[in-house]
TrEMBL record:
PANTHER family: EPIMERASE FAMILY PROTEIN SDR39U1, SUGAR NUCLEOTIDE EPIMERASE RELATED
Protein name: TIGR01777 family protein
Domain annotation DUF1731: ranges: 254-300
Pfam family, any one: Epimerase
Domain of life from the UniProt record: Bacteria
Length: 319
């Protein structure tokens, strides 16, 4: 089995690649940097330039599934320029893939699984969101996800099994939100954010990577939430991080207006509340290894993931 991965060098992509190699699944990946092209039997790099619609068609050779993770980070100030770049990076990547698939014999390719985000769900302290929710959050993030998923759905015209994984707050030491949340706690200035009551729908990096491969293995179609079974409040999450780090929380909650002054509209990422269900993927037979935040953080800081982040076996798959 061979999969093509876009965004293979990112946080989630690197973990998916690692799991692929554990399972003897061969990986083709796309990169915009010629210096990052690696050529091994189980790990082949190919060049592309989504902003120009350019791609090496050899990347599809022997591929049976595509995992799309491409897109610039949303964790930067939402200036008009950055907002445009965030949307274009997602749209251009998918359109470049689509146009390339129109040019080749794609009879071997069964499915496309694309990343998405739970930011599509409206901010709410009370609601519990499942995948068939029709309302879309009225923030920039909701706009991004709506445009992103529309581009993904276009691949249904190519007779592919199309699925989307709406990713929540990813728990990992190697990137994402956790290291940034832990930093002030380590320096004795950590505290819950805003009211602290906002729901944080989190997932361990390993479980998230396993969901992507599970969707590929079982040729699933549709939308699946990439979150763990037990969302927690921001206050609970901050307290559990402080507990595993053995650090006290000395300060009161950080007021909403302070975050807005520091981060502008991007502060919405920290203040939004989305309690999201994982039941749909579980009903397909997926079993989470990390069902509660305490166990996930213990493993990350004291067990495998923390140790793994420094190991050669992980880094060798990052071009």
């Amino acid at each position: 089995m061979r999969v093509l991965i876009t965004g293979a060098t990112g946080l989630v992509g690197s973990e998916i690649v690692r799991l692929c190699h554990e399972r003897n699944i061969f990986v083709n990946y796309l990169t915009t940097n010629s210096k990052k092209v690696v050529s091994r039997e189980n790990y082949q790099g190919f060049l592309w330039n989504p902003s120009r619609g350019e791609i090496d068609l050899e990347c599809f050779k022997d591929v049976t599934a595509i995992i799309n993770l491409a897109g610039s980070t949303i964790s930067k100030r939402w200036t008009p320029r950055n907002r445009k770049a965030i949307i274009k990076s997602r749209v251009n990547s998918l359109r470049t893939l689509y146009q390339a698939l129109e040019k080749i014999d794609k009879s071997r390719i069964v499915s496309l699984v694309s990343a998405s985000a739970i930011g599509v769900y409206p901010h709410s302290f009370d609601r519990y969101y499942v995948e068939d929710e029709k309302q879309v959050d009225d923030s920039f993030l909701g706009e991004v996800v709506q445009i992103w998923e529309k581009e993904v759905d276009a691949f249904k015209k190519l007779d592919l099994k199309v699925s989307k994984v709406r990713i929540g707050l990813v728990m990992s030491l190697k990137g994402g939100a956790l290291p940034e949340m832990a930093k002030p706690i380590k320096n004795y200035v950590g505290a819950p954010i805003g009211s602290g009551e906002q729901w944080q729908s989190w997932i361990h990096i390993s479980d998230l990577a396993r969901i992507f491969l599970y969707v590929v293995d079982n040729e699933l179609k549709g939308v699946y939430n990439g979150v763990g079974p037990n969302p927690v409040s921001n206050t609970k999450l901050v307290k559990e991080i402080a507990k595993v780090l053995d650090k006290p929380l000395l300060l009161p909650k950080i007021p909403k207006f302070v975050l807005q002054l520091l981060l502008g509209k991007m502060s919405y990422l920290l203040l939004a509340s989305q309690r999201v269900s994982s039941k749909k993927i579980e009903e397909e037979g997926f079993v989470f290894e990390y069902q509660n935040i305490c166990r996930a953080l213990d493993e990350i800081y004291e067990g495998g993931e923390g140790m793994l982040s420094n190991s050669v076996s992980t880094k060798q798959y990052v071009p």
